[in-house]
Each structure stands twice: as C-alpha cells, then as structure tokens.
C-alpha cells in the first residue's frame, strides 16, 4: 500500500519539498536531513523519466517517500511513469471534469480504465514479484492529485472534485493568479478571492487540498486552513540560500580582518 496515501487519508497534514535538479545524491541528502517526503518536478525541473526513477530509488532507499509531478496528463506519460513504479502523482493544468476523467482512466487498468497492460515485467509490480498488482493493488495504491491553476478550473471545481479517483486538488497559486492577469501578484485581492473560492468549494465537496507555500501563506497558515499536502522549499533555493549565507559570512569576516589592520 502507498504509505503517503494512507497518511493523507488518515487526516495527516504532510509537508514536502521539491526536487528540481534531478540528482539522486541531492535527494538522498535532503531525506537524511529532515525532508522525508519529496516531490520530483517533472514539469519544470531537470531530467527525464530515467532521472526521476534514479531519484525515487535514492529517496526510497533513504527511507523517504516520493511524489512525481508529471509534465502533462497524456496517456503515454501516465502509463510510462506508472509502469516505472510511481504511485503518487501530481498532474498539472487540469481545467475540466472531462480532463479529470480521462486522467483517471489512463491511470487504471481495464475494468476501471484503459491503462495498457504489461504488469509482470514492470518495476511497478516489483518485476512481477507482486502477482496481484494489476488486479488488486494498482488502483488502490494510486495517490492522484490534480492541479487547479486556472480560472476555468475554479469555475469547474465542483465537477472536477466529484470525479471518482481524484484524491486531492492541488492549487498552483502563481499560475492561478496569472490566469486573471496577476502573475507574481498572488497576494492581490483578486487571486486571494480565487483561493478562498477553491477552499470553500473543496470543503463543500469533501475533497482535500494540496498546494505550495506562497500567496501569503506559510506552513502555519496552510495547516490552519486544513491543507493535507504542502510543498515548501526546493533543492535549488536551498542551495542558493546556503551559498549566499556562506558568501556573506566570508565577506563579513574578511571585512572585519581588513578593518583590524
């Protein structure tokens, strides 16, 4: 069973970080130092499917859990990442219930959907070591998050949330703001109103929410609002912050040494 899915279904609020660089060593370091749930960014980050699998192996070997944000919701993309063993997915730019139904169908084997069959020879089935994978396990262990990041998705949220097989609605606040011409102005009144509409609509539908830090909302605010899955920093930003801090420390120490002479 998917432990991350179990935690979210049990009501736990899970905090995660992004992996943008597609590097297994960096991902392992992050797990070893407190970021035990990582989201591989296949939409905007570095790498391809083989890189993502290598990162996932490093995360899992270190005792962590991994989510993949796929670059798109096509049948081919979803089939390939599922076959390669990813069980927790974020699919971007889902604006209608029809799109949501197509994505769910692409992720499920016949009887429930149209996923192509090769179960005995897949990493997903532990290379055939789980004979009941396709029949009993695949659909149950899938954790599927669909990104709401456009005004059209807000208008269609009740119908999207009602699609069976959609586990969470994932808000992309900057793209959402951009869809109403407020890119990088997420704290303006209009984008904030859209966030409140999504939160109210999801609550009415009984659908858990996920998002990133931003739009004036940090860990504390998101927890108070009841978000189940929250993604904070990324490996690039952590590296930048560390590089800047160490450079500033160096410059301060050298300036102090010069002043003493």
TrEMBL record:
<keyword id="KW-0479">Metal-binding</keyword>
<dbReference type="GO" id="GO:0016832">
    <property type="term" value="F:aldehyde-lyase activity"/>
</dbReference>
<dbReference type="InterPro" id="IPR040442">
    <property type="entry name" value="Pyrv_kinase-like_dom_sf"/>
</dbReference>
<dbReference type="Pfam" id="PF03328">
    <property type="entry name" value="HpcH_HpaI"/>
</dbReference>
<dbReference type="InterPro" id="IPR050251">
    <property type="entry name" value="HpcH-HpaI_aldolase"/>
</dbReference>
<dbReference type="InterPro" id="IPR005000">
    <property type="entry name" value="Aldolase/citrate-lyase_domain"/>
</dbReference>
<dbReference type="InterPro" id="IPR015813">
    <property type="entry name" value="Pyrv/PenolPyrv_kinase-like_dom"/>
</dbReference>
<dbReference type="GO" id="GO:0005737">
    <property type="term" value="C:cytoplasm"/>
</dbReference>
<dbReference type="GO" id="GO:0046872">
    <property type="term" value="F:metal ion binding"/>
</dbReference>
<feature type="domain" description="HpcH/HpaI aldolase/citrate lyase">
    <location>
        <begin position="17"/>
        <end position="230"/>
    </location>
</feature>
<comment type="similarity">
    <text>Belongs to the HpcH/HpaI aldolase family.</text>
</comment>
<protein>
    <submittedName>
        <fullName>Aldolase</fullName>
    </submittedName>
</protein>
<keyword id="KW-0456">Lyase</keyword>
């Amino acid at each position: 069973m998917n432990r991350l899915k179990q935690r979210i279904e049990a009501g736990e609020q899970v905090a995660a970080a992004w992996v943008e660089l597609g590097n297994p060593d960096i991902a392992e370091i992050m797990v070893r130092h407190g970021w035990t749930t990582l989201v591989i960014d296949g939409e905007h980050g570095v790498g391809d499917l083989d890189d993502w699998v290598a990162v996932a192996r490093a995360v899992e070997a270190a005792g962590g859990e991994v989510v993949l944000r796929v670059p798109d919701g096509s049948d081919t993309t979803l089939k390939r990442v599922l076959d390669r063993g990813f069980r927790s997915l974020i699919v971007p730019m889902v604006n209608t219930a029809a799109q949501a139904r197509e994505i769910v169908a692409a992720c499920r084997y016949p009887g429930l959907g149209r996923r192509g069959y090769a179960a005995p020879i897949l990493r997903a089935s532990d290379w055939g070591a789980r004979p009941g994978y396709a029949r009993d396990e695949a659909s149950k262990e899938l954790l599927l998050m669909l990104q709401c990041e456009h005004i059209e998705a807000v208008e269609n949220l009740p119908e999207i949330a009602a699609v069976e097989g959609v586990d969470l609605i994932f808000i992309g606040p900057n793209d959402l703001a951009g869809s109403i011409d407020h890119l990088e102005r997420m704290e303006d009144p209009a984008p904030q109103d859209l966030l409140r509409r999504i939160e109210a609509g999801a609550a009415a539908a009984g659908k858990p929410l996920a998002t990133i830090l931003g739009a004036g909302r940090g860990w504390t605010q998101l927890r108070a609002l009841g978000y189940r899955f929250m993604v904070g920093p990324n490996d690039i930003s952590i590296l930048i912050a560390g590089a800047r801090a160490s450079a500033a420390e160096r410059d301060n120490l050298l300036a102090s040494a010069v002043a003493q002479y």
